[in-house]
Amino acid sequence: MGVALPVALTIAGSDPSGGAGVQADLKTFHQFGVYGQAVITLLTVQNTVGVTRVECMASDLVAEQIRAVVSDIPPAAAKTGALGNREIIEAVAGLAADFRFPLIVDPVLVSKHGAALLAPGAIDVLKTRLLPRAFLVTPNLEEAAMLAAIEVSDVDSMRAAARKILALGPQAVLVKGGHLAAGDAIDVLLNEGEWTEFTAPRVATCHTHGTGCTYSAAITACLAAGQELPTAIRNAKRYITEAIRTNPGLGRGSGPVNHHAPANA
């Protein structure tokens, strides 16, 4: 008789250098003792120095991948990463209407190097079709600013953005403050009308490739394991902070975090 494992699904793009996207998500799931499944939405040509090409999958192929895995090995939680274009977003949103598990939406708009990972005009369908299906949305400062249509540069504006994003329909919003100009890395959660802040010391390093993917994957893994949302975020925050602090220093640019960091869950 097999050992029961929590199952998590990532619906995201591929990073051949292994630091972000489905590669980062699967490593993170594994580190938390969760069985990982991956639906590929797009292929990138990238490394720690930059992104030179992005090719989206056909939206029907993305949908078929999701149906295949969900019908056979249903996940206990799922996340999205880079979705590429409006057709893929619409396909994922249509299927998400029938999901019986929480969906974490990491609204990946650009890569660490500034390359667009969402086609122009697709942000509207992300806001109107996918966010209402989300259990949790996890934007960084730039993504929160684009979703909320306000400037986001401090904790007060992070809270204002969270309110505006929550009004788009998700159940909860976590605005990540890793890109704040100074001070600790503060993330702000708005969930069931309550505010929670998650704080960690800022790590001075350029090796932060894939932090958003890894953080949201860790939250997804913890939810799949049955943790409540604030606990899941707290454990994921500890993991990503340690993963950044102990980064292996790989590559000639913004290198990956340490996915072998201990999972405190």
Brief characterization of the structure:
The chain has about 260 residues and is an alpha/beta fold.
Please tell me about this protein's structure:
This protein has 265 residues and is an alpha/beta fold. It contains 8 helices and 9 strands. The chain has helices at residues 21-31, 59-72, 86-96, 123-130, 141-148, 155-166, 211-224, 229-245; strands at residues 7-14, 35-46, 51-56, 77-80, 103-105, 136-137, 172-175, 185-191, 194-200. Strands 3-2-1-4-5-6-7-8-9 form a 9-stranded mixed β-sheet, sandwiched between helices. β4, α3 and β5 (103-105) form a beta-alpha-beta unit. α2 packs parallel to α3 (86-96). It is globular and about 45 Å long. The mean pLDDT is 94.
Spatial strand sequence of the major β-sheet: 3-2-1-4-5-6-7-8-9
How many β-strand stretches?
A: 9
User: What is the overall shape?
Assistant: globular
Fraction of residues in H or I helices: 25-40%
Low-confidence stretches: none
Instruction: Classify the secondary structure makeup into a structural class.
Output: alpha/beta
The string of secondary-structure elements, in order, is EHEEHEHEHEHHEEEHH
The number of helical runs is: 8
Rounded to an integer in angstroms, the radius of gyration calculated over CA atoms is: 17 Å
What is the first-to-last residue Cα distance?
A: 25 Å
Largest sheet: 9 strands, mixed
Q: Please, what is the average pLDDT? A: 94
Record keyword descriptors for this entry.
265 residues, alpha/beta, 9-stranded mixed beta sheet, 8 helices
Task: Detail the topology: elements first, then pairings.
Blueprint: E1 7-14, H1 21-31, E2 35-46, E3 51-56, H2 59-72, E4 77-80, H3 86-96, E5 103-105, H4 123-130, E6 136-137, H5 141-148, H6 155-166, E7 172-175, E8 185-191, E9 194-200, H7 211-224, H8 229-245
Parallel strand pairs: 1-2, 1-4, 4-5, 5-6, 6-7
Antiparallel strand pairs: 2-3, 7-8, 8-9
Helix pairs in contact: 1-7, 2-3, 3-4, 5-6, 7-8
